[in-house]
Design a protein that fits this description.
The protein is an alpha+beta fold and 465 residues long. It has four domains: 65 residues, no CATH class; 95 residues; 133 residues, Cathepsin D, subunit A, domain 1; 64 residues, no CATH class. It is built from 17 helices and 15 strands. Strands 11-4-15-14-13-12 form a six-stranded mixed β-sheet. Strands 5-10-9-6 form a four-stranded mixed β-sheet, with no helix packed on it. A hairpin with a 2-residue loop joins strand 13 and strand 14. Helix 2 runs parallel beside helix 4. It starts with a helix and ends in a 10-residue tail after the last helix. This is Retrovirus-related Pol polyprotein from transposon TNT 1-94-like beta-barrel domain-containing protein. It holds the Pfam family Retrotran_gag_2.
Length: 465
C-alpha cells in the first residue's frame, strides 16, 4: 500500500457521473492514502500542539500548515552551530573519532547555509579543541610544515588516544571500614574521635620538632608556640603515663566479611576488578609493575593478569566483562559502571535496587546490601565460584607475611607499639616453628593437621599493638 501517495500527488478532480474507470480508481487510491496519512499525522502530534495547527482535509496541505508553525531562521541556526563549534571541547566521554566527526558535521551544516569553512582551518580548529593530554600531539602538529587532511587527522588522533589510554592508571576508589563503635577515647583536655578512613596515627617521638618561643601555631597542651599538640613532647610523655599507646590500622580484608563469589557495582572504579581467576574465558599474565590499580588510600595494587570474564546473571544472560583485571589483594569483585556504559548497557537505580538493560531489554538486576549495590547472579553459577584455586586461597589467607609487611613500614623510626607487636611476632614464630601440613597415602587427599588456627590469631592486627 502506497501510504505517501497523497503527499506526492495533488488531489484529483472530484468524481462525476461521466468519470472513467481509471479516474475512479485513481481517486479511490488518493482518498485512501489521504485518510491514512491524516490519521497518522494527527495521532502522532500531542493535543496541545495539534490545536494550534489549522485543520484541513488534505494531508499535503495539513503538512504544509505544520511546516509553517515550525519554521526557523537560517541565521539563528547558523549562530547556534557556530556557538557550539566554538565552545565544544573533547571531554573523553566518547571517542576522539566521534568528537571530530561531530565537528565535521557542524561544518557541513554551515556549508549548506552558505558559510563554508576550509578543511585546513577546520583541522586546526579541531586540534585546539583537544584537552591538555594531547599537548605533545599539538606540538608535533605545529612543528610540521605539511597540513593534514581530515582523514589523516582522524587516524592520528585515534592512535594518540590509544597511547594515552595504555598509559592511564586504572583507579578504584575503595575505602571500606568496619562499623563505628561509638566515640573515641578521651586524651587529656581534648578528644580524638575514631577515624573512619584508612589511616595510621604515628607515635614515634622523632617526629616532634617543635621549639618553644618560636612563631607559628600554638600548642593547646603546653601553651607554647611553634608546634601543635600532636608534636608536643610533653603531651606524648603525658600519654605514655596516662595510658597505653595504640596504633590503629584499617584494612578492608580484616574489618568486613565479604563473600568471595559476590560481585558489586561501583561507579567510582574505572576497570572491572576480580580477586579470583574463576570465570575467566581468556587470561593474559602480566609481569610485576606492568599494570597497577590506584585504590582509595593512595596505594597501588598490583595487577597479575587481565582478560575477559563471564558472569551468568539471574536471568540466564551471559555478561562478558572485557578487560577485567585480576587483583588478588582486593577484597571485593567490582564491576565498573563506566565500562559497561561504553558497551551500551544501561543502569537504572531506584529504591533499594537497580536494573541492568541492553538494547531496551532488562537482562539483570541487583539489590542494595551494606550500602553497596550487589549484582544478582545465577544460583548454580554462584556456587561454582566458591571453588577457588590455590593461589586465591593463599592470597586471602591472613598469614604472618602480612603482619611482617605492615611492621616493616615503620622500621626506620618505630614506636613502642611497634616493638610490642614485633615481640609478639617473634613469640608466634617460636611457638609454631614445628607446625606443618601432613598427609597420608590414600585415594582421597586428606588434611590431617594444619596450623591455620594459630595463623588466625593475627586476624585482628589492631590487637597486636
Amino acid at each position: 500500500m502506497d501510504l505517501d501517495y497523497a503527499l506526492r500527488v495533488d488531489a484529483p478532480a472530484a468524481l462525476t457521473a461521466e468519470s472513467s474507470t481509471e479516474q475512479n480508481a485513481a481517486y479511490e487510491k488518493w482518498e485512501h492514502s489521504n485518510r491514512i496519512s491524516l490519521m497518522i499525522m494527527k495521532g502522532s502530534i500531542t493535543t496541545a500542539i495539534r490545536g494550534a495547527i489549522p485543520d484541513s482535509d488534505n494531508a499535503k496541505l495539513y503538512l504544509a500548515h505544520i511546516e509553517e508553525q515550525f519554521q526557523g531562521s537560517s541565521k539563528a541556526h547558523a549562530t547556534t552551530l557556530i556557538t557550539k563549534m566554538v565552545t565544544l571541547k573533547y571531554s573523553g566521554s566518547n571517542g576522539v573519532r566521534e568528537h571530530i566527526l561531530r565537528m565535521n558535521d557542524m561544518a557541513s551544516q554551515l556549508k549548506g547555509l552558505d558559510m563554508k569553512i576550509s578543511e585546513g582551518f577546520l583541522v586546526h580548529f579541531i586540534i585546539t579543541s583537544l584537552p591538555a593530554q594531547f599537548g605533545l600531539f599539538k606540538i608535533n602538529y605545529n612543528t610540521q610544515k605539511r597540513k593534514w587532511k581530515m582523514s589523516e587527522l582522524i587516524s592520528m588522533c585515534v592512535q594518540e588516544e590509544e597511547r594515552l589510554k595504555s598509559e592511564q592508571l586504572d583507579s578504584a576508589h575503595v575505602a571500606i571500614t568496619g562499623p563505628s563503635k561509638g566515640k573515641g577515647k578521651k586524651f587529656g583536655k581534648g578528644s580524638m574521635q575514631g577515624n573512619k578512613s584508612a589511616s595510621v596515627i604515628k607515635t614515634d617521638k622523632a617526629s616532634s620538632s617543635g621549639t618553644k618561643g618560636s612563631s607559628g601555631p600554638r600548642c593547646h597542651f603546653c601553651k607554647d608556640k611553634g608546634h601543635m599538640r600532636k608534636e608536643c613532647l610533653k603531651f606524648r610523655e603525658w600519654l605514655e603515663k596516662k595510658c597505653n599507646l595504640s596504633i590503629c590500622f584499617c584494612y578492608e580484608s580484616y574489618t568486613i566479611d565479604v563473600p568471595l563469589n559476590a560481585w558489586w557495582v561501583d561507579t567510582g572504579v574505572t576497570v572491572h576488578i576480580s580477586n579470583s581467576l574463576q570465570g575467566f574465558l581468556s587470561v593474559k599474565k602480566l609481569n610485576k609493575g606492568d599494570r597497577n590499580v590506584l585504590v582509595g588510600n593512595g596505594e597501588k595494587a598490583q595487577v597479575e593478569a587481565v582478560g575477559t570474564l563471564r558472569l551468568v546473571l539471574e536471568s540466564g544472560f551471559n555478561l562478558d566483562l572485557v578487560d577485567t583485571v585480576y587483583v588478588p589483594s582486593m577484597t571485593r569483585n567490582l564491576i565498573s559502571v563506566s565500562r559497561l556504559d561504553a558497551y551500551g548497557y544501561l543502569f537504572k537505580f531506584e529504591n533499594t535496587g537497580f536494573s541492568l538493560s541492553l538494547y531496551s531489554r532488562v537482562i539483570g538486576s541487583g539489590l542494595l546490601e551494606e550500602n553497596l549495590y550487589k549484582l544478582l547472579l545465577n544460583a548454580s553459577f554462584t556456587e561454582s565460584l566458591k571453588t577457588m584455586n590455590v593461589n586465591d586461597v593463599v592470597a586471602k589467607t591472613c598469614d604472618i607475611a602480612y603482619v611482617v609487611g605492615m611492621l616493616g613500614r615503620y622500621q626506620i623510626n618505630p614506636g613502642m607499639g611497634h616493638w610490642k607487636a614485633a615481640k609478639k611476632v617473634i613469640r608466634y614464630l617460636q611457638g609454631t616453628k614445628d607446625f606443618m601440613l601432613t598427609s597420608k597415602k590414600s585415594d582421597n587427599l586428606e588434611n590431617l593437621h594444619s596450623s591455620k588456627s594459630s595463623v588466625l590469631e593475627f586476624r585482628d592486627f589492631e590487637q597486636l599493638i
